[in-house]
Amino acid sequence: GQQVMQIPQYQHVQEGEDFTTYCNSSTTLSNIQWYKQRPGGHPVFLIQLVKSGEVKKQKRLTFQFGEAKKNSSLHITATQTTDVGTYFCAGATSGTYKYIFGTGTRLKVLA
Amino acid sequence: DADVTQTPRNRITKTGKRIMLECSQTKGHDRMYWYRQDPGLGLRLIYYSFDVKDINKGEISDGYSVSRQAQAKFSLSLESAIPNQTALYFCATSRDSPYRGNEQFFGPGTRLTVL
Questions:
Q1: In sequence order, which residues have a C-beta less than 8 Å from that of residue B30 and are 6 or more positions away?
Q2: Spatial distance between the Cα atoms of B63 and B89, rounded to a whole number of angstroms
Q3: CA distance from start to end of chain A
Q4: Per the CB 3.0–4.6 Å rule, which of A105, B31, B44, B86 could disulfide with B94?
Q5: 3-state class of B95 per DSSP?
Q6: Strand bridging mode B104-106 / B87-94
């Protein structure tokens, strides 16, 4: 079945450093979503990417969707302590109506 | 989000007991989902429902059942709880098929412990 893997599983950075998490699907995706879950909280939607090669930015966050629509990345520039949490990608394949979530990347930012 | 509520928020039960987790939403969404979260495994889909008459199995439906009592309510039952069902359970809703590009809104979660 479809699998979505994320790397790294954990990342500790100093405040001000950059951070990137990568998402890889075993199958071609129709679109991909990204969510953030703060410690003790629930996942909150960040963005959705649909087009091959799409790049979207939200302030210090940059999201990319691969040309083959099988991988995606989230890059945070100059991390802040408010960026702490677990970041999940979630991909859907064409013809399905459900998302498969990645394993998540837990980010810790050291002040 | 206060728009999606889950009860109870925490529950400790014993092996073999039947337990029901409830989810209610005031967002007016047709689509509802149940996920479980385990450390290192992300979120896995248990069941999903597109409307009151449409219920579908997800990745890990064995040992679980659901009921969609109304557009706003979607319940998850563990008929005979076992320890490996200890997890954090999330309910989510979406306006339309996420396939068409609509985000999922998650409830606060229910932490279930099966002893």
A1: B50, B51, B71, B95, B96
A2: 14
A3: 41
A4: B31
A5: coil
A6: antiparallel
B108 touches chain A (CB under 8 A): yes
**Residue B98 confidence (pLDDT) above 60:** no
Give first-to-last CA distance, chain B, whole Å.
30
Task: Kindly state the tokens that stand for B55.
Answer: 């219920």
Single-letter code of the amino acid located at B17: K
Integer Cα distance of B38 and B88 in angstroms: 7
- Facing A92 at nearest CB: one of B42, B92, B99: B99
Instruction: Provide the chain B residues 28-57 that lie in CB contact (below 8 A) with chain A.
Output: 33, 35, 40-45, 48, 50, 56
For residue B98, give the 3-state DSSP assignment. helix
Contact between A63 and A73 under an 8 Å Cβ cutoff? The reply is yes
Q: A-chain residues within 8 Å CB-CB of B33? A: 98
Mean local confidence (pLDDT), A20-35:
94
Q: Do B42 and A104 touch (CB under 8 A)?
A: yes
pLDDT tens profile A56-103: 999 999 999 999 999 999 999 999 999 999 999 999 887 666 789 999
Do residue A98 and residue B98 have CB atoms under 8 angstroms apart?
yes
> Given an 8 Å threshold on Cβ–Cβ distance, is A31 in contact with B99?
yes
Residue partners of A64: CB distance under 8 A and separation at least 6: A49, A53, A54, A55, A72, A73, A75
Of A6, A92, A98, the CB nearest to B58: A98
As a whole number of Å, the CA-based R_g of chain A is: 13
